[in-house]
Amino acid sequence: MRDCWVRAAHCSPVLLVSCVLGFAAIGSGLFATNAFAQSDADDPFAGVEEMIVTGSGTASLLSESNSSSIGFNAQELDGLGVENIGDVADYVPNLEIRSQNQTNASFFVRGVGLQDFGANATSSVPIFQDGIARNPSATQLSGLFDIGALSVMRGPQGSGNYRNASAGAITFEVAKPTSDVTGYATTTYSRIVSVDARDANRYGVETAASGPIWGDVVSARMSARYSHENPFHENGCANRTPIEDRTGVTLGGPVSPEEAAICGEDVRPALFGQPPNRSRVVPFLGRYVGEVDDFAIRGQIRIQPPEIPLDVTFRIEHSNLNRDSTVGQHIGTARRAPGSSFRRILGGGDRRRYIDPDIAAREDQLFAFFRARNPTLTNGQVTDLAQLQLNRELYRSPLDESPYRGDFDNPGRTLLETTSASMGLDYEFESSRLEVNAGFVDYRKSERQDTDMGPNIAFPSQSNDQAWEFYGSADWSGDTIGDFPLEWDLGGYTLIEQVESSQVQTIALAATLTRQRNEFTQEIYSFGAFASVSYEFFEGWRAKLGVRYNWERKDFAIQRENLTNPRPLEQSENQRTWDAVTWFALAQYDFTESVNAYMRYTRGFKAGHFNPSRPLSAKVPDQGFADPEQIDAFEWGMEFAAWADRIKGKGAVFYYNYKNYQVFRLSSTSGGIFRTIENAQQARNYGAEFELGLSPLAGYVPEAIEGLNVTLNFGWLDTNFVVFTSIEDRNVGSGVIGVTIDYSGNALISAPSLQVVGVFTWPIVLDGIGTIT
Questions:
Q1: In 3D, which of 8, 7, 29, 1 has the Cα closest to residue 770?
Q2: Based on the number of CB atoms within 10 Å of its own CB, is 6 exposed (0-12), middle (13-18) or buried (19 or more)?
Q3: How confident is the model at residue 45 (pLDDT cuts 50, 70, 90)?
Q4: What is the distance between the alpha carbons of residues 364 and 608, in angstroms, rounded to a whole number?
Q5: How many other CB atoms sit within 10 Å of the CB of residue 466?
Q6: CA-CA distance, 530 to 695, in Å (whole number)?
Q7: At 2, is the secondary structure helix, strand, or coil?
Q8: Residue-level pLDDT at 209
Q9: Residue 523's pLDDT is what?
Q10: How confident is the model at residue 256, as a pLDDT?
Q11: What is the mean pLDDT of residues 227-243?
Q12: How far apart are CA 715 and CA 404, in angstroms?
C-alpha cells in the first residue's frame, strides 16, 4: 500500500484554517521497520558487487542526455501538495506557468515560452503524459492524480520525440498496475476563513486500487479523483429583481441611477437619441462565484507474458471540469483635462463611467484631504490634485481593499470534457530495447466569460471549441553494436490534430451592441525522425551527438460573421509547411564516479503559427501567421554527489540566441483589437541555475525517521529583445498609416530575474499506521 500522508493544503492567502487528512492501507510502517532490522544473512543480494537499477522515476543524477532536468517521484509530489501541472512551478526555478482561464495555460522555461491561450496555441514547452504529447492547449492543465513520476527538462531538445520543444518539456507518468493487491485513498479538506471573502469549504478525494486479473500475467489499476470548492468571490451585481420590478422605475420613462443601478452599471436616461438605457445586468445572479466541481477517472490493464521480455499497458481516461469562469476586477484608465492639458490617469472608470468602489472611495478621501488643505481652490482644481495623487498610488498598488469582491454583469461557466486512450509497449531484446507509444486525445469545451470584468457590457464572450489528436512514437535504443560499446537511439514520431473553434463576441460601440462570430479550423500533420549516439572515447571522457528531422504542415481557415448587421462573410485560408534539422552535441568529463562536468550545444526549432483573430489575413505575414522560431543554445554545467549520496547537487550556466522568437501581443488597429503572434527578429537570454539536496539523517537513525530531505534551488535570468519592431495601423484623418513600434531592449515576459526555492520534507513512518509527511 502506498504511504499515507498529512500535509498543509495549497490555498489562497486568505486561508487561515486548512488541513489534509490521508488514509492508506496498513503495512507501510511494518515494512519500513522490518527492512531496517534485516540482516545480511536475509539479504538475497548479499555479495553482489555491482547492481544496475533502471526505471522511469525521477531524473537521475549524472545523466548526460538531459543534464538540466529536474524530477519528482510520487511521494515527493504528494508531500509538496502538487495537484496539477501549474503547481510544479512553485518548486522549479526558471519555470513559469501562467493561466488566463480555468483550462488553458502558458509555460515558460528559462524565460522562453508563448503567452497564448487560444484553442490552437502551440506551446514551446510540450506536455507528455505516458509518452503521449498533450498538444491541444485545453488538455495541458490536466489534474495530476495517481502519478508515478514527473520531470521538467529545461532547454531545447534537439533530438528525441520532443516536437516543438524549443524551450523544454514536461513529462509525467501515471502509476502502473501491479500484480500485488494494493490501494490507497486520500481526502483533503480546507476551509477559507477571511474578512475579505465568504467562508467556504474545499474538499477532494483521490483513490486507486491495483491487483491481478490473471496471475502475474495480467493486472489492472483503477484510479479516480474528485474535487469541489464552494464559491467565495462576492459579486456586487448580485440581484434578484429585474429592472422593471424595481421601485420607482417606469418602462419607457426616465431612469434614476439611485433606483435602477445595482453595482455601477450605466443607467443614463438617453444617449445619442437612443431610448433610455436599462441595466443589462442579468437578473437573479448568485451572490458568490468561484464554484469548482471536477472529477476524473482512469483505468489501466497491464500484460506481462511469462518468459517474454514484453510489457504492454492499455489506458483509458476521462475527466470533467465544471467551474465558474475566471473573474477579476479592472482598474480602468481615462483622459482628464486639467485646464488645457491632457493626461492619462489610472482608476478613471470605463466608457460607461463605472469606477471600482475601492478606487472611488479613495478618490473621495483624497478630495476631502486636499479640500481641507487648499480652501481657496476650485472644486475642479482640487479634483485634479486628488486624481494626480490617486494615479501615483495606483501605480504602486492596485488599492483593492476587497480583493475577493467584483462587479460582473454576466459571470459565466466553463465546461471541459476530455477523453483519452493510449497504449505503451516495452520489449527488451538481448542488447537493446524497443518502446512504442500511441494515443488518442479528444476534448469538448464550452466557456462563457464576462471578459471585460465589469458591470457594463464591453466585450463579453462565449466560445465553443473541440479538438482531437492522434500521436504515436517509437524509440529503439541499445548500449552496444555487436561487441562495440556504443550507446545509440533511433526513433520517430507522428502527430495528427484537428481543432475547431467558434466564439461569439459582443462589442459595445457607442449606444449599440454588435455581436460577431469568429470561427476557425486548423489541421496539423507532423512527423519527426531522430537518432543519437554516445561513446566513451577516453576513460572519463564521453561525447554524445543527436539529430532530428522535423516536418510540419498546417491547414488553416478562418471567417467572421456579423450577427447584428448581416453582411458578407470576412474569410481567408492558408496552408504552410515548415521543416528543419535540429541537433545537439555534448562533451562530458567524469572527474570521479560522483563528480562530472559537461558542455552542450543545441539547435532548437518550433514550427510556425496561425493567428485566429484576423479573418482577412491568413496569408499576410506578421498578421495572419508567424514564422518558425530557431534557437542556438549553449550550456555548461557540473553535477556532484558526496557523503554517500546524502548531498547531491548540480549547477549550470547557459546562453540562448533566438531568431524569429514567437511573441504574443494584443494588437490595436483601426479594425479592432487582435490577439496576434508575431516574430521578434532576435532575442537573447542567459542565466544560471543551482540545485542542492541534503538528506542528513540517512543511515544514522532508524529508517522510520531517516527520510528528512532539504533542497535549495536557485535560478537567475537576464533577458531582452535584441531586435523587435512591429508595425500597426493608425487612423489619421480619413486614411490609415502604419506606425512602427520598437520593443528592442525590453525584457522577455515571464522571465523573473531571481528565484530561490527552499523545500523541507520529512516523512515519518508510524509503525502499523502509515506515514506523516
A1: 29
A2: middle
A3: very low
A4: 51
A5: 18
A6: 38
A7: coil
A8: 97
A9: 98
A10: 58
A11: 85
A12: 32
Helices (H) and strands (E) in the chain, counts: 6, 38
Q: From CA 177, how far away is CA 98, in angstroms rounded?
A: 33
Are residues 24 and 31 in contact, defined by beta-carbon separation less than 8 angstroms? no
Using CA of residue 263, residue 351, residue 454, residue 502, what is the dihedral sign? positive
pLDDT digits (tens, 9 = 90+) for 164-216: 999 999 999 999 999 999 999 999 899 988 877 788 999 999 999 999 999 99
Ramachandran class of 699: left when φ > 0, alpha when ψ lies in -120 to 50, beta otherwise: left
Q: Tell me the average pLDDT of the chain.
A: 84
CA-based nearest residue to 719, from 690, 742, 743: 743
More confidently predicted of 717 and 509: 717
Query: For 365-393, how does the pLDDT look when each residue is reduced to its tens digit (9 = 90+)?
Result: 999 999 999 999 998 888 888 888 888 88
Please, what is the end-to-end C-alpha distance for the chain in angstroms? Answer: 16
Pairing of strands 609-610, 770-772: unpaired
- Whether 689 contacts 628, CB under 8 Å: no
Per-residue pLDDT for 37 more than 70? no
What cell was used for 477? 535504443
Q: What angle do CA 446, 448, 454 make, to 5 degrees?
A: 165
- How far apart, in Å, are the Cα atoms of 278 and each of 261, 266, 267, 633? 9, 8, 6, 59
For residue range 447-469, what is the model confidence (pLDDT) as tens digits? 998 888 888 888 888 999 999 99
Distance CA 30, CA 36 (A): 10
**What per-residue confidence (pLDDT) applies to 102?**
67
Mean pLDDT for the stretch of residues 547-567: 94
Helices (H), 374-432: 379-396
Distance CA 20, CA 15 (A): 13
Determine the Cα–Cα distance for residues 322 and 227; give it in Å rounded to an integer.
Answer: 10
Contact call for residues 724 and 743 (beta carbons, < 8 A): yes
Residue closest to 698 by CA, chosen among 710, 686, 687, 688: 710
Buried b (16+ CB within 10 A) or exposed e, 391-420: bebbeeebbeeebbbbbbbbbbebbbebbb
Residue 115 pLDDT: 83
| Strand spans (E) along 333-410 | 333-336, 343-346, 405-406
Cell of 593: 564516479
The Cα–Cα gap between 449 and 12 comes to: 22
pLDDT at 375: 92
User: Can you name the residues that pair with 438 across neighbouring β-strands?
Assistant: 423, 472
Query: Which DSSP symbol is given to 282?
Result: P
Which stretches within 176-317 are classed as H helix? Answer: 257-260
Torsion sign, CA atoms 699, 701, 707, 708: negative
Q: Write the Ramachandran bin of 457: left for phi over 0, alpha for psi from -120 to 50, otherwise beta.
A: beta
Contact partners, residue 555, CB within 8 Å, separation at least 6: 521, 522, 523, 573, 575
- Which residues, listed in sequence order, are joined to residue 666 by a DSSP beta bridge? 675
Task: Assign 114 a pLDDT band (cuts: 50, 70, 90).
Answer: confident
pLDDT for res 442: 96
SS (H, E, C) 554-614: EEEEEEEEECCCCCCCEEEEEEEEEEEEEEEEEEEEEEECCEEEEEEEEEEEECCEECCCC
Task: Kindly tell me if the per-residue pLDDT of 257 is higher than 60.
Answer: no
What is the pLDDT at residue 48? 46
Q: Are 30 and 3 in contact (CB under 8 A)?
A: no
Reported as a pLDDT band with limits 50, 70 and 90, residue 275 is: low
* CB neighbour list of residue 131: distance below 8 Å, 6 or more residues apart: 161, 171, 422, 424, 435, 437, 439, 473
